[in-house]
Amino acid sequence: MTLIRAEGLSRRFPVPKRHVFEKQHQSTALEPTDLEIAEGESLGLIGESGSGKSTLVRLLLGLDRPSGGRVIVDGRDVDAAARARSLHWLRRQTGLVFQDPYASLDPRMTAGQIIAEPLWALDVPGDHGARVRDVLVQVGLDADMADRHPHEFSGGQRQRIAIARAIAHRPRILVGDEPMSALDVTVRAQVLALFQQLRAEQGLTLIVVSHDIGLVQNLSDTVAVMKDGRIVERGTTAAVLQHPREDYTRQLLAAIPSIRRP
Ligand SMILES: Nc1ncnc2c1ncn2[C@@H]1O[C@H](COP(=O)(O)OP(=O)(O)OP(=O)(O)O)[C@@H](O)[C@H]1O
Ligand SMILES: [Mg+2]
């Protein structure tokens, strides 16, 4: 079943004018794009910096308004122009992990408050305190760490708190935009294992933007390759990484020394 569908989805941004009489120019971050993501699929999004990966995921989650086209999640139109409250149905189904665990956690709040926030903001029923403790354990932290503040955690622990927050309301869709680039190798392996466990146990649909091809290789069933605001290649991870059809994909993969090729 298709869970997320983009139809002719595009995004342009106004280019800053150099002088007042200059005509307003637009730059295209995303060319009209069609994309389908199946329920339970794990999609890796790769492509050079500025190719439109973050723009695409922001539009898919209704965090940004498209210049054209539309997004349909679970059969419903994502109207990013709507008032925040009317997108609660989408927030309930989605969790987001950003790149930087320092910037995404409010330093004045305790870990417990940070993780519980989406639970009360989205009117999730149940005992929020109990859920916070469960989810802390699930990401490999101690339940009593809920009372600590972000600065009392290491970088890797902070990123786990960000992940705990993203999964606390049991989303069907988890989106990570470079979710592991701030983590060292061992913590990366632990977080990777957690994502795989959540997929196995909860049938999570996963969209991960990453420059780390090793991560994509381990986590994603399918890969989409972006260049200049377009998806230039999409297929199974094995097909795209081992037998890329596009020269651009070959160049992108060749630029990454860690990839294993047969
Ligand atoms: N808010 C914005 N205002 C103006 N231009 C933007 C905005 N957001 C993105 N862009 C432009 O859109 C293009 C795509 O950016 P995007 O952030 O989606 O790339 P990306 O693939 O995520 O890159 P990276 O790998 O560096 O994160 C870039 O040219 C960028 O400068
Ligand atoms: Mg980006």
TrEMBL record:
Organism in which the protein naturally occurs: Microbacterium esteraromaticum
Membership in a protein family: Belongs to the ABC transporter superfamily.
Keyword Magnesium: no
Protein name: ABC transporter ATP-binding protein
Gene3D superfamilies according to UniProt: P-loop containing nucleotide triphosphate hydrolases
InterPro entries hit by this protein: AAA+_ATPase, ABC_transp_ATP-bind, ABC_transporter-like_ATP-bd, ABC_transporter-like_CS, P-loop_NTPase
Keyword entries, A-Z: ATP-binding, Nucleotide-binding, Transport
The ABC transporter domain, residue ranges: 4-253
GO MF annotation, one: ATP binding
GO biological process, one term: transmembrane transport
Pfam families membership: ABC_tran (PF00005)
